[in-house]
């Protein structure tokens, strides 16, 4: 029974791939395999109910499917290629299914429908599907970069590339390009900046065409002549491009295929576009016109053309700007209601009465910190939008602790900067690759290039293991201090080393309850460690390539991971298969973060975009472009409204999630930003960088702006260059890159990094 | 510009010759030119691809340097077997040689004596990762603790001294604050005004905090006080403390005034202390001294060439001070000389001018020669060697002529030994092998025969060393390698060996900053000797000092020091009195190994008896030890 499931899923993946190749890049490709998290029945009953209705339309509603006509012809072509491939590999059943579905292209994109008709029943099927999902992760990889799995000769690559086979006179390319250049340089100033956006994609595609058609010398000459004109932030891509001089090289090159498979998105005002169109038609410049039509997606808007500054702020990503409609979906960025827990006044007897985690409006008497979240935020998702684990007693205790600490919290501001305590990792020999601190700042963990994970206690409380099973039997289980008794005093030490990975550990994350630790590594696995026994509990395999980052959900249980295979995965700790796969990035996913309400996941990538994914249905609901380098740091503001991102370009960008807009840019760092963190009350944003500095920014001021409807509608942003006013402080370490930042519950800033003598 | 460079990078491919060479190495001869081109293009492309992937690993490894493991990982990504075992100790594993129009890269494979490896103690296990917390900022201000960088980095000190208008608030981005200032002019909120003020009035160095004033008082008192232990601590503090920037002008004035006064009063001890302060200041890697050279250099030069530095020039060892100051001068020439300030050439001119003057006294003459000689073999070759004949005649006149004054005689004696010491090694390198005494006499006049014997000794010593490299290095430097090797070899590893961070960077930086200055006292030793097993370090000291004191004993007559404060330093010359050295605790041995003892130790050898240790080797060995001596000395009282 397995094989059919397998192959049908396979077919779907390929369909999806086809869709991607056809140019329907946005939301469509973000479909992921679905499987229900088989969680505790009790917890999930209500959740499943809540989900049932929304999951079926989920993919159909996606905003991106609104122009199937444009890519239809190409779609057909790619589908044929896929069929050819399947037949060649004797996957006849898949061929059947695919063919059947090819008749209904809308449906073929909806995997849910297809699957359930294919095999029927619920439980086992879900398992089978996730199984297939992981098995096929490589195929998914290739959905964004088909060539990756295509080291051998495969027809579909040729299909993909064949679009380049249109033959023009190679000698004329330079003429065409410089003709256009001349034209754009002479147009009115207001249009020039907009039209200049065309240069880069045009340049790339023309160059690739030359290379594809074996005009190596012409291509080189073309590159040399015009590469200098391109915006400086495309340098990295140009570097890749220039090493590519032969048709054979095109096969395996990911960057190139990204270019081909995804249409470069440009946002141009109608006037400018008309100008360009008229010019090209007058000149009969079909070569360029063809490229624009085939490889570019021009998002035309009405109104004033944008200025150079506005364009530069948004461009820089591998595939141009995000389309406007990509950021239109509603995002529930509000926070979930805090489960109501009474502050223990004298003794703690409320544990018993407040059994379930749902707030019951019991005794709203004390005006505590949780009070502000009592009103339902209109932007918050419903409490049961995704099933969340029930609060355990220990969690409640922790929340109480948190509230108590919160009352002692320092109010920060421009005149009241936080103190910074720096944890240096000595003798790390440049091998420190990841750091995380628990929310209560009691434990610190480091991931190292030598495959180890080390955990330190930064409080006087030492780390102890649980006693062995034999010893545990001897314990009186009725005693009050049983939790204390199960710990083995002999193993107490300040730090513990966790061995298990076979490659550098790039991502590390504590669970909110401090019982678990996640680590992701170059070896392609994510490991879950118990902090009770200090042993590895699970190795999650799914990414076949290095996993760059992983993070626990703020509510525990779920975690997200992303890596070189360009797919972010959502996992639950008790499933060895991913629950969701978020695919759509065009290059490595470099960092992953959970939204404070656990309903969304944000990923940053080497393709210089940031994507926000809905955990519920796997849709990509936001695409943020504007960074000029791979993104290495992300942070949500504690109120869930804003996002800060940092990249190798040394800039921090601030995003309004609700409106899907960039709202600020913080310049100052001179090297990659590896860590970002908001203070507990969002007043201060701290950023830590490879340039050995911690910088503090005035977040209140940065976000203190009105977003008018016009800006929200058009997406035209006006950023004022006020980084210097917002910069509240900059603190240099001696020689330690800052790779992690953390605000304690009382708003003391902790920073960490490996000392490089 | 950048564009051009990029394009060049792009079109770079491996030369076809490499392809041929590689093909030949695996037994494929006669590779066609076309195949070579095709191969080289393909290989270049793949290499670039892998390098780009490796960069990703570097970024995620949070490093700035690409390592071999990154490349391994990138290969793994491409499903290629990584290169196992490519873990070179050095950054570039092969050597380069050229000659006869051919260029050659080769792996250096030295023959290794197994017994040496077996006998050398095992290197220490690298320390385990540890966690250390410190305050980076307290309520928004960065405390000046050793764990934090100096409040004003050297670059900024430089900017401040060269372009005082560009002064920025510490911790603020340079161009940024200027921008902000531009805005500050327009908008008059408090912050903008604040910055505007700073711009109008460059940072004044007048205000020192109370703590700083106290510190300054303590330090200066300790530096010139009578307690050697305190002085050692004070000097160490000057040499390592990162936050002295604001006090630098005061220190500078203190030194220059101090020298001015004490030269007049002929207070040798104080002059020595002040010179040690200069040295400590120069050793501090966080200070930007350029601004204060106009005060420091005259002071140092004074100590080199002044006619009289002590009350009784016939007995006091002011020669040591001159040597020390000359070395300081050489060091500052090396570090601070630029095309704009021309320190080296100006200094050279000054020295040469007064040396050429016939009326110059022997003391000044000695200082000039020492100052020139310390500047390196090139200077010796071009400026000193041609004058050997003239100088020899002058010495002869004093030595063999009618006795005019004892002081002159001692001076001439010192000049002679100084010349012999410095010139012998240079001549040994310059002149062809057969050392004929007569020839030397014709070439160098009076000093010829002595030079000849010195050169011969230098040669034999060099030959001896070449023969038994291992032996000598083992015996002489054995205890030191455990210090130095572990520092440089394991690079990052040793520094952190000490629990505190501060010691590491400063010392390491020092090592890298001024690597090849053998004649300078090497600063890092200061710390490491303490850390190392004291017995090891001390024992070598002992060996060397013993030998030098032996050799020194025949000549010098013991004299009482002028003041009690001078004791340790002046004694060292008179330290020939073996009874004294024996009875005193260890530290006295170390004190004996000061520079003057070295120079004086050579003196008898030339004239009196062949000492057990050949002079050249001793010279080298001593230099090593001598270079450490200030550091050792500072530590000794502990």
From TrEMBL, chain A:
Query: Which Pfam families does this chain map to?
Result: TFIID_NTD2 (PF04494), WD40 (PF00400)
Biased composition (Basic and acidic residues) is annotated at 102-113, 366-377
Spell out the coiled coil positions from the record: none
> Which InterPro entries has this protein been placed in?
LisH, TFIID_NTD2, TFIID_NTD2_sf, WD40/YVTN_repeat-like_dom_sf, WD40_PAC1, WD40_repeat_CS, WD40_repeat_dom_sf, WD40_rpt
For the region Disordered, what residue ranges are annotated?
36-72, 102-131, 343-398
Domain TFIID subunit TAF5 NTD2: residue ranges: 168-296
Q: Which UniProt keywords apply?
A: Nucleus, Repeat, Transcription, Transcription regulation, WD repeat
List compositional bias (Acidic residues) regions by residue number.
343-354
**Amino acid composition bias (Gly residues), ranges on this chain:** 115-125
Q: Which GO terms describe its biological process?
A: transcription initiation at RNA polymerase II promoter
Q: Give the UniProt entry's GO cellular component terms.
A: transcription factor TFIID complex
Spans of repeat WD: 425-466, 498-533, 540-581, 582-623, 624-657, 666-707
Organism domain of life: Eukaryota
Q: Where is it localised? A: Nucleus
Q: Indicate yes or no for the key word Aminoacyl-tRNA synthetase.
A: no
Q: Entry's SMART domains?
A: LisH, WD40
Q: What is its main location?
A: nucleus
Task: Extract one GO molecular function annotation from the record.
Answer: RNA polymerase II general transcription initiation factor activity
Task: Give the Low complexity compositional bias ranges.
Answer: 39-65
Q: Which family does it belong to?
A: Belongs to the WD repeat TAF5 family.
PANTHER family cross-referenced by the UniProt entry: TRANSCRIPTION INITIATION FACTOR TFIID, TRANSCRIPTION INITIATION FACTOR TFIID SUBUNIT 5
The name of this protein is Transcription initiation factor TFIID subunit 5
Provenance organism: Gouania willdenowi
Q: Which gene encodes it?
A: taf5
TrEMBL record, chain B:
Please list the GO biological process terms of this entry.
Answer: RNA polymerase II preinitiation complex assembly
Q: Which Gene3D superfamilies match?
A: Histone, subunit A, TAF6, C-terminal HEAT repeat domain
Q: Indicate the family of this protein.
A: Belongs to the TAF6 family.
Q: What is the lineage of its organism?
A: Eukaryota, Metazoa, Chordata, Craniata, Vertebrata
Q: What GO cellular component entries does it have?
A: SAGA complex; SLIK (SAGA-like) complex; transcription factor TFIID complex
The listed locations are:
Nucleus
Which residues are in the TATA box binding protein associated factor (TAF) histone-like fold domain?
12-78
Q: Which UniProt keywords apply?
A: Nucleus, Transcription, Transcription regulation
Domain of life of the source: Eukaryota
Q: Does the keyword Transcription apply?
A: yes
Spell out the protein name for this chain. Answer: Transcription initiation factor TFIID subunit 6
Alphabetized SMART domains for the sequence: TAF
The UniProt entry, under InterPro entries, shows: Histone-fold, TAF6, TAF6_C, TAF6_C_sf, TAF_TATA-bd_Histone-like_dom
Q: Where is the composition biased (Low complexity)?
A: 596-606
Q: Which Pfam families match?
A: TAF (PF02969), TAF6_C (PF07571)
Annotated GO MF terms: protein heterodimerization activity; RNA polymerase II general transcription initiation factor activity; transcription coactivator activity
Instruction: Name the segments for region: Disordered.
Output: 140-197, 596-638
């Amino acid at each position: 029974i397995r094989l059919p499931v397998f192959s049908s899923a396979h077919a779907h993946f390929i369909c999806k791939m086809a869709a991607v190749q056809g140019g329907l890049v946005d939301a469509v490709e973000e479909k992921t395999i679905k499987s229900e998290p088989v969680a505790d029945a009790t917890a999930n009953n209500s959740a499943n109910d809540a989900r049932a209705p929304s999951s079926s339309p989920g993919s159909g509603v996606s905003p991106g499917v609104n122009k199937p006509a444009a890519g239809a012809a190409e779609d057909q072509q790619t589908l044929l290629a896929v069929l050819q491939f399947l037949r060649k590999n004797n996957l006849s059943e898949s061929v059947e299914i695919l063919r059947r579905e090819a008749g209904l292209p809308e449906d073929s994109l909806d995997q849910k429908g297809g699957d359930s008709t294919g095999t029927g029943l619920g439980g086992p099927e879900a398992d089978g599907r996730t199984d297939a999902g992981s098995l096929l992760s490589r195929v998914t990889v290739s959905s964004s970069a088909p060539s990756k799995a295509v080291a051998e000769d495969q027809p579909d690559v040729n299909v993909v590339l064949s679009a380049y086979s249109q033959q023009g006179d190679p000698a004329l390319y330079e003429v065409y390009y410089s003709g256009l250049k001349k034209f754009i340089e002479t147009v009115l100033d207001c249009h020039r900046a907009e039209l200049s956006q065309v240069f880069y994609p045009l340049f790339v595609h023309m160059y690739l065409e030359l290379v594809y058609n074996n005009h190596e010398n012409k291509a080189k000459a073309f590159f040399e002549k015009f590469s200098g004109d391109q915006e400086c932030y495309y340098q990295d891509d140009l570097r890749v491009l220039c090493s590519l001089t032969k048709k054979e090289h095109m096969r395996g090159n990911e960057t190139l295929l990204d270019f081909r498979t995804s249409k470069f998105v440009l946002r141009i005002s109608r006037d400018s576009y008309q100008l360009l169109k008229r010019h090209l038609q007058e000149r009969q410049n079909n070569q360029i016109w063809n490229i624009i039509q085939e490889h570019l997606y021009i998002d035309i808007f009405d109104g004033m053309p944008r200025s150079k500054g506005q364009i530069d702020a948004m461009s820089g990503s591998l595939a141009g700007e995000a389309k406007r409609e990509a950021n239109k979906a509603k995002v529930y960025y509000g926070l979930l209601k805090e489960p109501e827990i009474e502050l223990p006044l004298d003794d703690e007897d409320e544990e018993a009465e407040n059994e379930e985690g749902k707030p019951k409006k019991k005794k709203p008497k004390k005006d505590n910190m949780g009070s502000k979240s009592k009103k339902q935020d209109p932007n918050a998702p419903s409490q049961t939008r995704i099933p969340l684990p029930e609060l355990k007693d220990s969690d409640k205790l922790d929340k109480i602790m948190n509230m108590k600490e919160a009352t002692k919290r320092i109010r920060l501001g421009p005149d009241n900067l936080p103190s910074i305590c720096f944890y240096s990792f000595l003798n790390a020999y440049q091998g420190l690759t990841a750091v995380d601190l628990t929310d209560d700042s009691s434990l610190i963990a480091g991931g190292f290039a030598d495959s180890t994970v080390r955990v330190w206690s930064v409080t006087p409380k030492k780390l102890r293991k649980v006693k062995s099973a034999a010893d545990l039997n001897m314990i009186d289980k009725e005693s009050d201090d049983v939790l204390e008794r199960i710990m083995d005093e002999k193993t107490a030490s300040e730090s513990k080393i966790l061995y298990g990975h076979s490659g550098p550990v790039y991502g590390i994350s504590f669970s909110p309850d401090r019982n678990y630790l996640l680590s992701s590594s170059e070896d392609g696995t994510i490991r879950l460690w118990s902090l009770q026994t200090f042993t590895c509990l699970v190795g999650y395999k799914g990414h076949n390539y290095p996993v760059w980052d992983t993070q626990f959900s703020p509510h525990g249980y779920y975690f997200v991971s992303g890596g070189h295979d360009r797919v972010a995965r959502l996992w639950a700790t008790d499933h060895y298969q991913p629950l969701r796969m978020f695919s759509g990035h065009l290059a490595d996913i470099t960092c992953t973060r959970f939204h404070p309400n656990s309903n969304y996941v944000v990923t940053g990538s080497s393709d210089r975009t940031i994507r926000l994914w809905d955990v519920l249905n796997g849709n990509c609901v936001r695409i943020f472009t504007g960074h000029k380098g791979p993104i290495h740091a992300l942070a949500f503001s504690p109120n869930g409204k804003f996002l800060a991102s940092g990249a190798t370009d040394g800039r921090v960008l601030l995003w309004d999630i609700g409106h899907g807009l960039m709202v600020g840019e913080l310049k100052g760092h001179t090297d990659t930003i590896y860590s970002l963190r908001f203070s507990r009350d969002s007043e201060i944003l701290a950023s830590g960088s490879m340039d050995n500095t911690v910088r503090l920014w005035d977040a209140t001021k940065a976000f203190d702006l009105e977003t008018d409807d016009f800006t929200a509608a058009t997406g035209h942003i006006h950023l004022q260059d006020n980084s210097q006013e917002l910069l509240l402080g900059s603190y240099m370490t001696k020689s330690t890159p800052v790779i992690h930042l953390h605000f304690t519950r009382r708003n003391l800033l902790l920073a960490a990094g490996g000392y490089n003598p | 510009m950048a564009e051009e460079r990029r394009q060049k990078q792009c079109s770079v491919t491996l030369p076809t010759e490499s392809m041929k060479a590689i093909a030949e190495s695996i037994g494929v001869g006669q590779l066609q030119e076309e195949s070579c081109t095709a191969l080289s293009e393909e290989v270049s492309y793949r290499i670039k691809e892998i390098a780009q992937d490796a960069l990703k690993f570097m970024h995620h490894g949070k490093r700035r340097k690409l390592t071999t493991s990154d490349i391994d990982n990138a290969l793994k990504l491409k499903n290629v077997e990584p290169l196992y075992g490519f873990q070179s100790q050095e950054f570039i594993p092969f050597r380069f040689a050229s000659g006869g129009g051919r260029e050659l890269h080769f792996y250096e494979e030295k023959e290794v004596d197994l017994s040496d490896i077996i006998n050398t103690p095992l290197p220490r296990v690298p320390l385990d990762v540890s966690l250390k917390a410190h305050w980076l900022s307290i309520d928004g201000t960065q405390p000046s603790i050793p764990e934090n960088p100096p409040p004003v980095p050297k670059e900024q000190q430089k900017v401040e001294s060269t372009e005082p208008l560009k002064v920025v608030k510490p911790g603020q981005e340079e161009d940024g604050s200027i921008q902000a200032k531009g805005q500050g002019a327009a908008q008059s909120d408090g912050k903008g005004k604040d910055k505007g003020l700073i711009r109008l009035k460059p940072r004044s160095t007048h205000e020192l905090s109370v703590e700083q004033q106290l510190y300054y008082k303590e330090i200066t008192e300790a530096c010139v006080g009578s307690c050697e232990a305190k002085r050692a601590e004070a000097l160490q503090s000057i040499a390592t403390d990162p936050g002295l920037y604001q006090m630098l002008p005061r220190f500078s004035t203190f030194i220059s005034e101090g020298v001015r006064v004490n030269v007049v009063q002929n207070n040798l001890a104080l002059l020595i202390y002040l010179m040690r302060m200069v040295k400590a200041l120069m050793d501090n890697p966080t200070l930007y001294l350029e601004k204060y050279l106009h005060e420091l250099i005259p002071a140092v030069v004074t100590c080199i060439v002044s006619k009289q530095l002590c009350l009784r020039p016939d007995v006091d060892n002011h020669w040591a001070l001159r040597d020390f100051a000359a070395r300081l001068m050489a060091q500052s020439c090396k570090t601070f000389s630029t095309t704009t300030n021309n320190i080296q050439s100006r200094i050279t001119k000054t020295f040469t001018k007064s040396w050429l003057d016939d009326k110059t006294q022997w003391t000044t003459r000695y200082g000039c020669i020492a100052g020139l000689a310390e500047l390196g073999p090139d200077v010796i070759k071009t400026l000193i060697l041609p004058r050997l004949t003239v100088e020899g005649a002058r010495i002869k006149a004093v030595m063999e002529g009618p006795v005019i004054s004892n002081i002159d005689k001692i001076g001439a004696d010192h000049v002679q030994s100084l010349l012999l010491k410095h010139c012998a090694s240079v001549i040994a390198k310059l002149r062809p092998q057969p050392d004929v005494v007569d020839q030397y006499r014709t070439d160098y006049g009076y000093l010829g025969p002595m030079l000849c014997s010195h050169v011969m000794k230098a040669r034999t010593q060099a030959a001896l060393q070449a023969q038994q490299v291992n032996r000598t290095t083992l015996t002489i430097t054995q205890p030191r390698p455990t210090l130095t090797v572990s520092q440089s070899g394991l690079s990052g590893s040793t520094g952190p060996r000490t629990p505190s961070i501060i010691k590491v960077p400063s010392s390491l930086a020092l090592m890298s900053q001024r690597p090849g200055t053998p004649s300078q006292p090497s600063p890092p030793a200061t710390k490491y000797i303490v850390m190392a097993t004291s017995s090891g370090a001390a024992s070598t000291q002992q060996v060397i000092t013993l030998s030098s004191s032996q050799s020194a004993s025949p000549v010098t007559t013991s004299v009482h020091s002028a003041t009690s404060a001078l004791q340790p330093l002046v004694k060292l010359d008179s330290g020939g009195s073996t009874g004294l050295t024996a009875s005193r605790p260890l530290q006295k041995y170390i004190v004996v190994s000061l520079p003057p003892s070295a120079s004086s130790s050579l003196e008898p050898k030339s004239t009196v008896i062949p000492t057990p240790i050949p002079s050249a080797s001793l010279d080298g060995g001593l230099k090593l030890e001598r270079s450490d001596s200030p550091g050792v000395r500072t530590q000794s009282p502990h």
